[in-house]
Structure formats: C-alpha cells, structure tokens
Automatic annotation (TrEMBL), chain A:
Key word Phosphoprotein present: yes
Domain Response regulatory: 9-136
Any single Pfam family the record assigns to this protein: Response_reg
Residue numbers carrying 4-aspartylphosphate: D66
SMART domains registered for this protein in UniProt: REC (SM00448)
Keywords tagged on the record: Phosphoprotein
InterPro entries: CheY-like_superfamily, Sig_transdc_resp-reg_receiver, TCS_response_regulator
Organism for this UniProt entry: Leptospira fletcheri
BP GO annotations: phosphorelay signal transduction system
Record protein name field: Response regulator
Highest rank taxon of the organism: Bacteria
UniProt lineage: Bacteria, Pseudomonadati, Spirochaetota, Spirochaetia, Leptospirales
PROSITE patterns hit by this protein: RESPONSE_REGULATORY (PS50110)
TrEMBL record, chain B:
Gene Ontology BP, a term: regulation of DNA-templated transcription
SUPFAM superfamilies recorded: ATPase domain of HSP90 chaperone/DNA topoisomerase II/histidine kinase, Homodimeric domain of signal transducing histidine kinase, PYP-like sensor domain (PAS domain)
UniProt cross-references to Pfam families, sorted A to Z: HATPase_c, HisKA, PAS, PAS_3
SMART domains: HATPase_c (SM00387), HisKA (SM00388), PAC (SM00086), PAS (SM00091)
Domain (Histidine kinase): residue spans on this chain: 420-633
InterPro entries per the UniProt record, alphabetical: HATPase_C_sf (IPR036890), HATPase_dom (IPR003594), His_kinase_dom (IPR005467), HisK_dim/P_dom (IPR003661), HisK_dim/P_sf (IPR036097), PAC (IPR001610), PAS (IPR000014), PAS-assoc_C (IPR000700)
All residue ranges annotated as the PAC domain in the record: 90-142, 217-268, 339-395
Keywords annotated in UniProt: Kinase, Phosphoprotein, Transferase
Enzyme class: transferase
Protein name: histidine kinase
EC number, as in UniProt: 2.7.13.3
Molecular function terms, GO-annotated: phosphorelay sensor kinase activity
Length: 137, 637
C-alpha cells in the first residue's frame, strides 16, 4: 500500500445500516479516504449534489449506489442525476452496489454511461481497495 | 219504222208509231239510239232517273264525256268497237257521271242496227243502274280478302264436308299448315295420314262422333309434315243441320306450334324457378307492398316454425322480434316507397316455439316498367349457428386471455419473489458473512462485541423478512380459504372502529356508499385486511394542508365487484413510483411508520382470489385504490 496515497471523498447511498457500518469500518481500515458521507436514499444525495454543484471540493470522487431503497431507488437517482450531471464541476465515479445477481439489473447498470461498474454485495476489503485505488490512476 | 217480223198482235188501241213510243217510253231501262260514233240521237224519259239529264239535254252529246276516264278505253274496246263491227257485245259495267256530279254504276247492252245494205248506221243501247250490285260485290270481295288475311295471320284453316254431295272443301290456309301444294289433292285419308301416330285415334274418334251424333269438339294434337316437322294444331269441329238432320260437318284448324313452344318454355322456366325457390336451403319469401307474405318457401317455414298457410295471413313484422321492428320498418319502408331498390339487415325472428333466430336478410324490390312495386323478394340466411360459434369462439378467446393473464401474473410474482430473495434475503446474508470475517479478525473485545451486535440485528431482520415471506406464500397457496356472505357495511364499521381514535384526532370525514353492491361472498379475514390496509394508508398519508376525506364505495363493473377507497391525502407521483407501489418494503413518504408491507400483502390477497388492484394518484391531490374483487366477464351472451 502506498503511503503517499491521496485521500479522497466518498459518497455511499444505501439504506442498509449494517452494510453502511461494515463499509465504513472496511474503508477506515484501508485508510484510503479522508471523507465519507452516507445517504440512506437517493433523494438526500441528489439534493446534496445539487447544493454543491459548483463546489469541486465538496463533490465526492466516488459514489457507491445501492439499487433497492425506499423513496428514491438507485435507478431513479441516476435518472435525476443525468439531469444535472453536465453542470457538475467535478464528475464523480459511480459504482452500483447491490445484492441482486439479476442479469437484467447488471445489464441495465452497464448501459448507463455514468456507471463505472456493478458490484455484488458483500463487497470485500480487497474489492474496496481495488476500485478506490484503481480509479486513481 | 217497219215491222218485218210477226211478233204478235198489237191491240187495236195502239196503232203505228204511238204503239212503239209507248213501249220505249214506259221501259224501266234507259233506252237510247246513238249514231255510229255513239252520240245520242234519242233517249227515253227514263234517262232522267239514271243520269239526271232531260232527254233533250243528252241529244247530240258524246257519251264518252260522261263515262269515267278509267272505263272509256274498256268500253271502246269491248263494246263500242264490237258493235260498230256488227257483233252484239256482252253487256258492260262502267261508271257514269250524273248531272249532279256523282258517278253511278251503269250496265249497258249495246246492239248494232244495220241499214238495208247491212251497213251499221245506228247503235241501240239499253242501260240500267247497278250501283247496289257493285257495292255488294265489293263488300263481298273485301270481306273475303279480310277473312283470307285473318286466317293467314291466325294460321287458321277451315274445312267443310257436305254429306249430300260427298265433297270436302279445304281453305288455302289448310294447305299452308300442312305444307302442301294447293294443287295437290287433299282428302280425309291424306289428312289422317298427317296425324301424329299417338294422336291419330283421338282425332278420328272426334270426327266420327261429330258426323254421327253432331257432338262438336275442340282438341289439341300433333301432325308430322312431309319434312318431318312436328306441329301442334288446335282442331275444332261442328255439325251442320238441316231439318233436324246432320247434312255436313265443318271446322277449323289452327297452327299453335309457336304458342305451344312458348308455353312449354314458360312451363320449364317456371318449374326451374319454382324448384329453385322451394328447394333452396336459404329461406326465401315474397312480400306484397303492404308487407304481407305472398309466397314462402319451405326453408323459411322451417326456420321460423310457421307453415306457409299460416304465414299467408301474416305480415312481415308479425313474426319479427319486437326490438328489431323499427329497423325492419325503416328499411322496408324505403323499398316500398321506391327510395331504395334493395337492402340488407341482421335481424332476429321469433320462432313459433318462442326462441330467437339470428338472420341476415336481403330484400330486393321487383317493379313493373312503370315503377310500381309488384313484390319484394327477401332472402333469409340463418346466422344463429354462426353467432353461437362466434360466441363460443369469443368465450374461448376470453378464457385463453384470462389464462394468459394468470400466467403473466405468475411470472411477475416469480420476479417479485426473486427480487425479495436478492434484496431482502441475500443482502443480510452477505452482511452476516462479512461480519463473521470481521469477527474472526477482530483485535479487541470491544470490536468483537460490536460485530456480534450487528450480527444479531441482521439475524433479526432476516427472520422478520422470512416471516413476512412465509405469510405471503401462505396467502398465495391458500386459494381455498372459506368464503362467506359478507355485508360491506358491517366489515367497514369494524375496520373504522379500529381507527376511531385516530379519526377523531384528525377529524377525518368518512363517506361510504354500498348501495350498488351491498355485499359479497369472500373470505372475511381477507376483506377485512384489504379494507384495513387501504383505510390505514389513507389515514397515514394524509395531507397536513386539508381536512382528510375518505370515501369508500362498492359497485359492479363488467360483472365484477369493485371496491374503491379514495382520499385527498399526499398522493403519489405514479410516473416515479408506479411500478413499485405494491412492492415489499417500499415506502414513499418520510416521517411515517410505514414499513412497505401493507400494500404488498393486500395485492397478494386480492390476486390470490382472482382479483386485481390498481391505483390512481396525483401528488398533493389524493390517492384512489380500486380493487376488483373477483374475475369479471369481458363478454356475456
């Protein structure tokens, strides 16, 4: 692991409290990020992004997006996101994270241009490390 | 004048010239003396009546002046010239112009008078009027000519047999009919020889009876002419009586071949049409312009169950189905009035036994050249069977649709379960597996405790989800939950009772309308659960901006029983949430205790009994849930 690793901001959008706790701990252990925000559904995240549309400091480098959530789910989030994506001064890298192994879901995610990849839960420490460091290069 | 021959004794009173004068002047004929060229030298007084002239007026006049120009030449040749030459010509008929300007027919006998040397020096004429005779002859000629013409036109020949003389006379037309030269002899035997072998006996018999008893006859029979042509004749015979005895027989023969052929053709053509009409598999009838049946075929009789005799006393609409009479009257009215020539209509007939028959009728007007309607031909096709088949087909189709719909539902249920498994079960299991790994790698007791706490929480969550799923699967499988007669009023009162505190707290206005469909046969717990869920949803998602109004009503739609629960609450953007509203663990409003279970359960309950649930909503206006309790029929016969 590189000690020179620059710390980044991450936004996790998931309603599963346990998963959020696990993810938080894993990433903390990895020590690869300095900032970690959580929203239990899409709506909160959308308004957060909209509020910081011209503030690259606050715009996360990564977004980990769950599919199945009450209120606004992952797909709806992406729909809303597409409406103002071009106005963001910094484009976050979006990963979808879901326990669904449904091929239809995977294909749908891959067809969306802003989505870098689709990760199936549970996500291991290594996986976290890989995606978060891979994106740096 | 000398008398040279002894012609008898002259009475003593009349002597010499006076005697001759009296003879000449009293004659009934016109007596004249002419010179050799014909000029009048003397005319007796009788000339007044015949010519209109006084005797003196005629003296020295040329008779040719009075004779009709067309007759002059004939008189000169046949009479005058002969007399001049000394012969006694035959009497001659000619026309003479009377003094009053009209021609009369005269007949004159001319006699030459020679002198002693034998030289003809005078002409003597006696003349009488024959106009009446001429007229009679003309009339006779005319009538003969006409009768000839007529017998020719009518192809009628005549014959007469005189028993006294034993002669038989045949008119010319008879020869023509028998195609025989009039100069050839014709007798009884020859005539019989022309008879068609099959008809000979009857012809001979009739003629014999006529001769013996005077019994007249009229019969149609065939002859075969020399060329082999068969002709049809109508022969008539009558007897001639004299002093009560038969003295002869006479008769007429008419060639009726042409009319016989036409008659036969008509007969065949009528037979053809009659066969076509009566044996048609399609019902056909004729109507007069008042709409009465004139002619009806068997198929139509069979179709409607009325014998033809009964239909003849009826009108078209007497056996029509009452609901169709207006349509029928409209169409036939137009045909009767001449506005339309034909028309087609699907209509029902009421069979005599009381059932309905569906038919397709086609009506065509038949009119005289003047345009006046003679009758209307109506064809009736029985389409009841077709309709029944169509109905069966439609029913099968609808069953198929419903099966396909059920299948579609099953598939979407599977998809739903798949989602539940992946999101609601797979997800906590993933967490458990990670937490166990964390636990193994934990460095402090504190960490371990924390992970065990997470593990417990996840396990509880998993158990809860599993229980919910089991509940749903139970509902799904339990198709045969006992149903009972339920009154909506009662069930709803109980449900309302459960929320009484809340209703009073928010001051909700509850309206119900169960008039159209007051009750249903349905599992009571399900109905209660459905109403409870929908009602609690309405209470839960009320708008803080207005007083809550909830309306519940039941009604029938397409043979299906419907329940509607409508509120004026927060409402939902169905474009956003439309496909998720009935899913497990879905909630759409913050700050409420919803767990996303109620509608999921409700949907499963409704569908497990063959019903449907759908939602109409608008944000900040309200929500309406529409439940169709049972399967409706798209199609009812």
């Amino acid at each position: 692991m590189n000690s020179q690793f620059r710390k980044r901001r991450l936004l996790l959008i998931d309603d599963d409290d346990i998963f959020v706790a696990i993810a938080k701990r894993t990433i903390e252990k990895a020590g690869i990020l300095e900032n970690f925000d959580v929203f239990p559904d899409g709506e909160g995240a959308i308004s957060f992004l909209k509020d910081h549309i011209t503030d690259p400091e606050s715009i996360p480098d990564f977004i980990l997006l769950d599919i199945n959530m009450p209120y606004m789910d992952g797909w709806q989030f992406l729909e809303e996101y597409s409406l103002f994506e071009s106005m963001l001064l910094k484009k976050p890298i979006i990963y979808m994270i879901s326990s669904s192994v449904d091929d239809a879901d995977i294909k749908k995610a891959k067809d969306i241009p802003y989505v870098r990849d689709y990760l199936i839960k549970p996500v291991s420490v290594d996986s976290f490390r890989r995606i978060l460091s891979f994106s740096e290069e | 004048m000398n008398v040279q021959e002894d012609n008898g004794t002259i009475p003593a009173d009349f002597q010499g010239e006076a005697f001759f004068r009296i003879l000449v002047e009293k004659s009934r004929d016109m007596v004249c003396l002419h010179d050799i060229e014909g000029r009048y030298l003397y005319a007796n007084p009788r000339c007044r009546e015949l010519t209109g002239y006084e005797p003196g007026e005629l003296l020295n006049r040329d008779p040719y002046d009075f004779i009709h120009p067309e007759d002059r030449r004939r008189i000169r040749l046949e009479s005058h010239d002969l007399a001049k030459a000394g012969t006694n010509p035959h009497s001659i008929d000619y026309r003479f112009l009377k003094k009053e300007g009209i021609y009369v027919w005269l007949q004159t006998q001319t006699q030459p008078i020679p002198d002693t040397t034998g030289k003809i020096i005078y002409l003597h004429t006696t003349t009488r009027e024959i106009s009446d005779q001429i007229e009679l002859v003309d009339k006779l000629k005319l009538s003969e000519r006409l009768s000839c013409l007529m017998s020719e036109l009518a192809c009628v020949g005549g014959w007469e047999s005189d028993f006294l003389t034993g002669t038989i006379h045949w008119t010319e037309e008879v020869y023509r009919i028998f195609e025989r030269d009039p100069s050839d002899r014709l007798d009884k035997t020859i005539i019989y020889a022309y008879c068609h072998p099959e008809d000979l006996d009857i012809v001979m018999h009739c003629n014999r009876r006529l001769g013996e008893t005077g019994e007249s006859y009229s019969l149609e029979h065939r002859i075969v002419t020399d060329s082999g042509r068969v002709k049809w004749l109508r022969s008539q015979g009558k007897a001639n009586y004299s002093g009560g005895k038969i003295v002869g027989i006479y008769g007429a023969i008419q060639d009726i071949t042409l009319s016989k052929i036409v008659e036969e053709e008509i007969r065949i053509s009528e037979k053809k049409f009659s066969l076509a009409f009566h044996n048609s598999g399609i019902g056909i009838f004729l109507l007069d312009k008042e709409g009465r049946f004139i002619e009806v075929n068997q198929s139509f009789s069979d179709l409607v169950g009325y014998p033809a005799e009964e239909l003849w006393t009826k009108k078209l609409n007497d056996i029509a189905f009452s609901e169709d009479t207006a349509l029928v009257e409209e169409m036939f009215g137009r045909i009767f009035s001449g506005e339309k020539e034909s028309g087609q209509l699907v209509k029902r007939y009421l069979h005599k036994k009381g059932f309905l028959i569906w038919t397709l009728i086609t009506a065509v007007a038949v009119r005289k050249d003047s345009g006046e309607l003679m009758f209307v031909v109506v064809q009736v096709q029985d389409i009841s069977r077709r309709r029944t088949l169509e109905n069966i087909l439609r029913e099968k189709n609808s069953r198929l649709k419903s099966v396909s719909k059920t299948l579609q539902e099953r598939i979407s249920q599977l998809e739903e379960f798949n989602q539940i498994v992946s999101h609601n079960i797979r997800s906590p299991i993933g967490n458990i597996s990670t937490l166990i790994k964390f636990l193994e790698e934990a460095e402090t007791e504190e960490e371990k405790k924390e992970f065990i706490e997470y593990l417990k929480e996840t396990a509880d969550q998993l158990l809860c989800t599993l229980n919910e799923l089991i509940e749903v699967i139970k509902i799904r499988q339990n198709v045969n939950v006992p149903s009972e007669q339920i009154r909506f009023e009662e069930v709803f009162e109980r449900v309302k009772g459960m929320f009484l505190g809340q209703i009073m707290e928010v001051g909700a206005v509850i309206g119900t309308d169960f008039k159209d469909a007051p009750g249903v046969v349905y599992p009571k717990i399900y109905l209660e659960s459905i109403l409870l869920n929908l009602f609690s949803n309405a209470l839960k998602y009320r708008s803080p901006k207005r007083k809550l109004c909830i309306n519940v009503r039941t009604y029938w739609q397409n043979s299906a029983l419907m329940i509607e629960v409508q509120d004026n609450g927060l409402g939902l953007d169905l474009n956003k949430y439309g496909n998720q509203i009935f899913r497990l663990h879905k909630t759409f409003h913050r700050n409420t205790e919803g767990k996303g279970l109620g509608l999921f359960m409700t949907k499963n309950q409704v569908e497990s009994l063959g019903g449907e649930i759908r939602v109409e909503s608008e944000p900040d206006v309200g929500t309406k849930f529409i439940v169709q309790l049972n399967k409706g029929y798209e199609f009812a016969i």
